[in-house]
Amino acid sequence: MTEPAAAPLPPDAVPPQPAPQGPQRGPVQDRSPLPDVLRGLSLLGILVVNMQDFAGFLEWRQTGLDRVAQVVTDVLANGRFISIFAMLFGWGAAGLLARHGAGVFLRRHVALLLVGAAHFILVWHGDIISLYALVGLGLLATVRMNTRALLVLAGVLGAWYLGLDLLAALASRGEAGTRWASLPDLSSTYAGNVAARAAEFSPELLGSALFNGPWLLALFCLGAAAQRSGLLLRPHEHTRTLRGLAVGGLAVGLPLGALLAYLNTRPEYAAGALALPVRMGAGWRPRWGTWAWRGCWPRGGGWGGCGPWRPAGAPP
To answer: What is the pTM of this model?
Structure first.
């Protein structure tokens, strides 16, 4: 015996809604390749920029082909890739917080802090992992913010940081002396270097968080805004935004990169002070707009495009 068919709903009735689901647990099932490609490009660019530091070079003392390589690096890469990487960190951290909640987020950041501490003490003085772990905790305060609020917060923090740096650079115009080097003094033994780094770790981390924290948190907020809007997971829906980022990034980044290249030929203290906000400002309009716009992927994966590069069958 068959059951009678359900009576049709009246026109003004609200159909039953599915029960809301909690945070999605476990690994992401449908992973977009675009963020991973951008991470790889960012790490490659960071490696290129930091090679001179690994070799012990100072920007303002290079000559010949080394000078040419320095100028090209400053114009095209310096400040760009580290900004993109920081925004991608914020994008991933915001997604982790949304899927798994604060508990997993905190455990991951504690583990990241420990890895960064080991990296700083045992390997390299320029570690940023521990700083990301500490400053990234600020994203806990942004859980209920929408995309617009995150963008406003990022703008306020970025303007605050750049404004203070520019004021400090202007105040140093008449200051005598030469530029400072970021290379640390090394002991003659590895054990001596490890002991010195262990003593320096906490004050270095806290000082860097106070000095660079506003700028870094601004970039994290931009990444969180990209996560909220689906900018990197559904780039074909944001072609206008990505075109604006691409054009704006070139219009702002190239002149600032040229200015940075000039400042890095100067040995004066004031030139070094001004180079810092110029370098950070060059990465403010992210170059990921260019890559994301030219490399939009359809939902099914594979290299595609937006606008004239859209493959057949891609969602509009």
So the answer is: 0.81
